[in-house]
Amino acid sequence: MDYLKIKSTPSLSGTIKISGAKNASLPLIAMTILAKNNVIIKNLPHVADIRTLLKLLSNLGAVCEFTDDSVNVDTSTLTETKATYDIVKTMRASILVLGPILARFGHCEVSLPGGCAIGQRPIDLHLKALEQMGAKIDINAGYVQATAPDGLKGCNIIFDKITVTGTANIVMAAALAHGTTVITNAAREPEVVQLCEVLNASGVKIEGIGSAILTVHGTSGELINIDEFSVIPDRIEAGTYLCAAAITKTELTLTDAEPKHLGSVLAKLEEMGCTFTLTHDTITLHPTQNLKPVKIVTQEYPAFPTDMQAQFLALATQADGTSIIEERLFENRFMHVSELQRMGANITLNGHTATVSGKCKLSGTDVMATDLRASSALVLAGLVAEGETNVHRIYHLDRGYDSLEKKLQNVGANIERLKEK
Ligand code: EPZ
């Protein structure tokens, strides 16, 4: 196993190229199950979760051919319809194959994903919606067994809670359904928007893209032709590097970014004293020497993203004053707090709210990553902690960040990847 050794880095400089979005890539890869042609997806990030989902598709019989940051997926050879526990347990987003496989083949078995470090992560809303579309859903021996021998039927679905992968799953199921599906309380994340845009361009007429009410006109089982496309930039990766710039009080430029997807994140960094120069695909952060405290509540897009909560908690330790960060989406997404406290952060937890009394003097030590975004928060803290910080169990980090230590080294960070002894 690897770990990251980080030494205090007075400042960074230069530019970082943002990779394609992991959370856009995953539903877009699952979407290839709906295609009659080979689908070329460009700008895929080199991260473990993408490799895992492509491996799952290969296990089902699809052929996936890679070039540098693109993949050519041929699902015409797909024969299996069972996503087994060994893969699903490593990545719960595997549930994204349920909708498309069921829509295409009329039956599908997917291992229940189980919870994960940050929470229970149920899929009840996915299953309830598929049942409304006419599927028969059984849960047997840890597997979801779904059948719809006559195909899925369009209907009116109202999600009790906004669910990102739930919305993606049902949009893909509705794409091949008989008739029209109206999804109310749909997720509006940019990753869901791109899925809808690609499907819409491929002949699945979708209205309300980007809004909370999506109307999907199904093809009645007719597979679709999907032209090659490029994955949108990863807004969470971009937000993470903006926090790296802010915490080291560095002017940094991100290229191949999408400022439009980061409104709530840029607004919070401005509240903390940073300013920005933006173009259509670059973001330059101008740091403040005195970070101001901040109040954050995580909510669904376009509000402040839960996937940036851990990074801002690390940043808030360097602000002069008391910051309050409330996590509203996941029940256990503060595991980075105890590791930051071990570095000297003055944080108190009360239920789903963290109170940070900054400015905290952080000291480097051995810390353990617990989940993807917690890992990046510990890296950010290591950049400004006195001495050396070793972040262990970075297989969590490798699930969602493409070459993080190389990108930070290229802008001057004192960080290296080493092998555990
Ligand atoms: C997606 O997870 C992202 N993952 C997560 O990013 C992100 O944190 C999350 O959306 C929220 O933005 C991918 O896109 C692959 P949800 P998802 O369904 O779809 C509850 C990262 O760091 N819920 O929107 O699984 C659920 O418990 C990852 O990149 C139900 O109750 O999240 C949660 O409280 C972490 N029943 C809330 O809804 C359901 O059937 C939002 O979950 C589904 C969800």
What general form does the structure show? elongated
Rounded mean pLDDT score: 96
**Arrangement of strands in the largest sheet:** 22-23-1-24
The proportion of residues forming helix, as a percent range, comes to: 25-40%
Number of strands: 24
Gyration radius over CA: 21 Å
How would you classify the helix and strand content by structural class?
Answer: alpha/beta
Summed up, the helix count is 13
Which cofactors or ions or other ligands sit in this model? ligand EPZ
- Quaternary state reads single chain
| Sheet of most strands | 4 strands, mixed
Give unreliable regions as ranges. none
Strand content: 15-25%
Report how far apart the termini are: 9 Å
Would you kindly provide a written description of the structure presented here, covering whatever features stand out?
- The chain has a 4-stranded mixed β-sheet. It has a 4-stranded mixed β-sheet with strand order 2-15-17-16, with helices on one face.
- The protein is built from 13 helices and 24 strands.
- The N and C termini lie close together (9 Å).
- The chain is an alpha/beta fold.
- The mean pLDDT is 96.
- The structure holds ligand EPZ.
- Ligand EPZ binds at residues 23, 26, 93, 119-126, 161, 163-166, 306-307, 329-330, 372-373, 400.
